[in-house]
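Researcher: Here's a chain I'd like modeled. Treat it as a single chain, no partners, no ligands.
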Amino acid sequence: MRLLHTSDWHLGRSFHRVGLLDAQAAYLDHLVATVRERDVDVVLVAGDVYDRAVPPLAAVELFDRALHRLADSGVQTVMISGNHDSARRLGVGAGLMERAGIHLRTDPAGCATPVVLTDAHGDVAFYGLPYLEPALVRDGLGAAKAGHEAVLAAAMRQVRADLAGRDAGTRSVVLAHAFVAGGEPSDSERDITVGGVAAVPSGVFDGADYVALGHLHGCQAVTERVRYSGSPLAYSFSEVDHRKTMWLIDLGPGGEIDAERLDCPVPRRLARIRGRLDELLEDPALVRHEESWVEATLTDPVRPPEPMAQLAGRFPHVLSLLFEPERAPEDPLASYAQRLKGRSDQQIAEDFVAHVRGGAGPDARERTVLVGAFDDVRVDDGVKEVAR
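Model: Modeled as a single isolated chain. Structure tokens:
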């Protein structure tokens, strides 16, 4: 059975205020063309179809057109909701869509109810695990505690129990939206940390023939059978070195995996340039970036006048401007942003406690309180967004 694994479309998202709807439409054209040209049997969409719980109308229309075209192509599509999606909104009409071969899995209660498809070698059971917010699904899944590993492990126990009751030789494919240990993140994914821990071990998915993951935006193989497709477009400059692709997976009669990366269309290349303003305006080596979307980091000791306008004269698609003046690390004028770079909210809060106490950071009990506070705020924000 031939599978096409994709995820993280983020329909409706912009890139530094540049609308990406046309680029997303071009990607979906490419997806449908690939389905037809490569004789794909099943399209897997591993979450974050939309960029937010209440997407703009143009994004909804684009999604609707894509579903009609996939259905008209005769391909089966299995799709789950991600942490950016409103599971209930995305799942509206799922029963009707199933008749057209569009299988939406957005309800955590349905984790162990697979889409069963058949090829010449027997059945393949597709289990859709939508994004599982631990605080919201723990009780329903019977998880021991409210953490990503605990709820995914509980969901996979249900999956294995269902699979054990099926005919011997039934192959299995799991779709999930999570941060799996060994995956390389970027700046454009929303934080899903719970209890100070974001990643779950890949062993949670043991027993599945193929695991189609979403959430991380870089295409990568955590193991031979556990893979991220990544996002089809770049959504931050941290993805400057990403090769945007989809996985074409041939699932053999005994669960064998043959994987091929298929490139996605690139609307405009990304570039990160760094140096003093006069250097960036004159360096002949930067000619190759003149048509790219550019993030420029200026290192001038003093901020130059109208730097964005000057840069735009050479790089008309410059979108982001950062300042990192050339100063020694101990210089008191070193920027606050530089000192905080790469530090989590939890680490910043703990540093603040140490600062106001004159050096003594939080003890274990206080650290637990901070972790719980950050978790509560993140979950509350997510619930409010979905409820809008």
